[in-house]
Amino acid sequence: MIEYDALPAIYGSPAYVYDLDRVDRARAELVESLPAGATLLYSLKANPHVAVVRTLVEGGCRPEISSTGELAAALQGGGEPAGFVYTGPGKTAGEIAAALDAGVRTFSVESPTDLRRVAGIARGRGVTARCLLRVNGAEAAGHAGMRMTGAASQFGTDAELLAGMRAELTGPDTDGARIVGFHFFPVTNAIDGDALLAELLGSIRTADRLRTELGVEVTQLDLGGGFACPFATPGERPRYPGLRVALEAELDTRFPGWRTGEVEVAFESGRHLVGDSGTLLCSVSDVKHSRGTRFVVLDAGINHLGGLSGIGRLLPLSATPLAGAPVPGPADAPADGPGEPTRLVGPLCTPADTLGRGATELPPVTPGQVLAIPNVGAYGATASLIGFLSRPGAVEIAVRGAEVVSATRLELVRTPVTAAGTVPAAAPDTATGTATGTAGSSRTDAAAGANDGANDGTNDGTNAGTTGSVNGGVNGGGWDPAFPAVLRSVLPRLAGSDAEVGPDDSLRVAGLDSLALVEVLVRLEETYAVTIPDELLTPEVFETPRGLWTLLGSVRA
Ligand SMILES: *Cc1c(COP(=O)(O)O)cnc(C)c1O
């Protein structure tokens, strides 16, 4: 084992450490809970670090990729492109061409348009693309209160619509593509094994029904995943002991050829495979006290850990001082009061650079001390706002046993774009740039893609507001005076106004952008001594004062 507390002094801080032995363990345990012989795909979106990818490829996983940057990382990691699955709702002609040219043959297609696009490009190259139709299932999941009917989705095609698309899916303009099966990915981060099982069984049934309706001979069935892992808080990966037997039984009934390999059954995972391998080590830069709140300023911010904060979701993260002796701070280091409400903030000049809020459990700390944030091997470095404020990225250290395998830093590089590289409006776009890009730019691609599946439905709520006046409302909200005071203290257009804050005023009109949103949340949590779970932060909540007040009521109850 490597002493983590020594690493920042050697390689710099902040530093992600990825323990490749833990990656192996997670893979082996997940494989044990899946049907025997099933394919396990690794979704590079979670972490495209080459050492991580290589570890999983060597362990038998195949890459699931959705950009040319991920394609490059998958190849670098030693993957065999014929086994990759290329997914994504907005595949461009350029990236499809780049993938085909690299030897990728399997694509998850999202719609008839996507199918025709893949088909046309494959046809032009004289090859056949194997296509999985991505399905947005309509099966009611077997658990109360979650998805009773299929929800609207930007991913895939609704199962009930697919049934009527037989002609569209088989016309001459689909020559070049062969539909080989279906792809599902209905849930993410499913902690409850029973709910996940119900979802996966539903997908098998839907695939069985669709193959008859569409006349598809299924040789590949990608059932997706949704395997969970805690993020930036302590805890264990959930285990799924109940999946294997139940899934094998359902497959035996519906797709008996799966036992002999006539139907390849695949599952996908990102966070579950790599989440618990990663720890972010960071250092305390300053400890300050302001009006009853302790601010622990870290050298890690939302540019290192916080793609989620950047879109209005806050990390309820947990940091612990490492066991080693604290690095002594300067002699004038401020006294630190335990039990004080604490905010963990980063180095960026924006109140949005808040990594943890509310009353955290962090004991007294001093500048120079190294803190560890656990379970950040997935959606960490490349899911962060790495370009914001132009600070260097975190160091990324891959370790195995007592050995440091690699220590690197991801950098953004500005490169010239020639006029020839620009795309005339009418022409199909060309495959340039990213496929041959540096590791740095490739990984940036991955970062840009990291938010789609990870954060379905977490749009910046501030954009969904209605229009209307912030003034002239009646205080029918029934709130106490502290509530409008918080809103006034943060929202610029309320601050100078004497008018009442009305329950149905538009917070967006009042100036609630994504930065102000973070500030409002933090202040409300401090004022009312509550923690607002991220799951409750829907766009509707941020439309009006009434929405916010109702939310507060629900967490204070
Ligand atoms: C994001 C994504 C994954 C990985 O999700 P995890 O929750 O990290 O396992 C797998 N498949 C698809 C299609 C995705 O979009």
The total of beta strands comes to 18
How far the N terminus sits from the C terminus, by CA atoms, comes to 45 Å
Number of domains: 3
**Class of secondary structure makeup:** alpha/beta
**Which strand-content bin applies to the residues?**
15-25%
CATH architecture level-2 label of the largest domain: Alpha-Beta Barrel
Could you write a compact summary of the structure shown?
The chain is of the alpha/beta class. 30% of the residues lie in helices and 16% in strands.
Structural features, described:
The modification N6-(pyridoxal phosphate)lysine is found at residue 45. Residues 477-556 form the Carrier domain. The active site is at 349 (proton donor). This protein is of the alpha/beta class and 557 residues long. It folds into three domains: 34-269, TIM Barrel (Alpha-Beta Barrel), CATH 3.20.20; 277-409, Lyase, Ornithine Decarboxylase, Chain A, domain 1 (Beta Barrel); 446-556, Non-ribosomal Peptide Synthetase Peptidyl Carrier Protein, Chain A (Orthogonal Bundle), CATH 1.10.1200.10. The chain is 30% helix and 16% strand. Strands 1, 11, 12, 13, 14, 15, 16, 17 and 18 form a nine-stranded mixed β-sheet that branches. It has an eight-stranded parallel β-barrel with strand order 2-3-4-5-6-8-9-10, surrounded by four helices. A hairpin with a 2-residue loop joins strand 17 (395-400) and strand 18. Helix 4 (68-76) crosses helix 13 (439-449) and helix 5 (93-102) crosses helix 6. Pyridoxal-5'-phosphate binds next to strand 10, helix 11 and helix 14.
